[in-house]
């Protein structure tokens, strides 16, 4: 499964299928940061997603599961 992840200034993480060619495509959303997301990164086998927050200075680990 090919995925892409984004983080925004509201602390929200979105995971979408790649390639994502349509604006406002369906996505899985998660919220865990209290402020902006500075980075998102998949691990080497795409089972985990890591995100870092700005003001909250946290690192979150997200589990990626197939539907």
Automatic annotation (TrEMBL):
Presence of the UniProt keyword Protease in the record: no
Gene3D superfamilies: YVTN repeat-like/Quinoprotein amine dehydrogenase
WD repeats: 30-67
Keywords: Repeat, WD repeat
Domain of life: Eukaryota
Family annotation (InterPro entries): WD40/YVTN_repeat-like_dom_sf (IPR015943), WD40_repeat_dom_sf (IPR036322), WD40_rpt (IPR001680), WD_repeat_EMAP (IPR050630)
Name by which UniProt lists this protein: Uncharacterized protein
Organism: Daphnia pulex
